[in-house]
Amino acid sequence: MNIVILANCDLASNYALNLLLPHLSQHHVSVFLSAKVGGSGSKPAELNSLAFFEQKLLNQILSPLFEKLPNYQGFKTFSQMSRILQQPVTELNDINSPLSLAKIAKLEPELILSIRYGSILKEDVLALPSFGVLNLHSGLLPDYRGVMATFWAMLNGEKKIGTTLHYIDNASIDTGRIAGHSHLEVQPEKSYLWHVLQLYPSGVNLLIDAVVTLDNGAQLTTTEQQGGQYYSFPDTEALKRFTDKPLCLVNEDELTAFMLEHYIH
């Protein structure tokens, strides 16, 4: 099967791809990355700090070091993934433009998988793959649509968070037919970023199972969404309520342990 994966240039997407790609070795896979999620407007300092740990640390500091090591055995950087793909991993932010559409169409995708991709897909993109577009949303739909679903669930005192595998049927956000959920118990002593990363082993399994089902000629069992709520990036007031609970966005010791386990052997 020809599969196009749309992901974001961040640690969670990199982790998810490292878990997913070995299970797609029999398929023809291409990967495109968005540079970020959200616009270019100013954000609270806490979110800028979070962006360092989610993106800059891996992309600008660690990946160049990993790629220079002759016997590096950890999880692949985005660049290193290119060796097992149809073409090099490519940044693609304007996916709905005619030029980008032509790039995707040339690959003749039968299935598009989206993981944390930063742009809204419009009708021309959605019409390309015969098996449709599946998005792995890092929140439980329909209750947590939008961005940073894990943050909002933790702030709201939810006992469980999770991922949702759903079809993208139109340009609305996180409203498509649901094909599956995964769940994770909230551990309030752990950070937001720790919880986000822990979502992906079970979330990626949803993607793997879906690919197997479609490749075998069967259809996914889906349910329509009813109700729900959309969340955007938290403002300063929401971030203060988060830390007052008390909860934290990033714990450097947790992140170090994660990197040692998966990237730095």
Automatic annotation (TrEMBL):
GO molecular function: methionyl-tRNA formyltransferase activity
UniProt entry tagged with the keyword Transferase: yes
Domain Formyl transferase N-terminal, residue spans: 101-191
Pfam families: Formyl_trans_N (PF00551)
InterPro entries in alphabetical order: Formyl_transf_N (IPR002376), Formyl_transf_N_sf (IPR036477)
Keyword Transferase among UniProt keywords: yes
Cellular component, GO, one term: cytosol
Keywords: Transferase
Gene3D superfamilies, per database record: 3.40.50.12230
Protein name per UniProt: Formyl transferase domain protein
Organism name: Paraglaciecola mesophila KMM 241
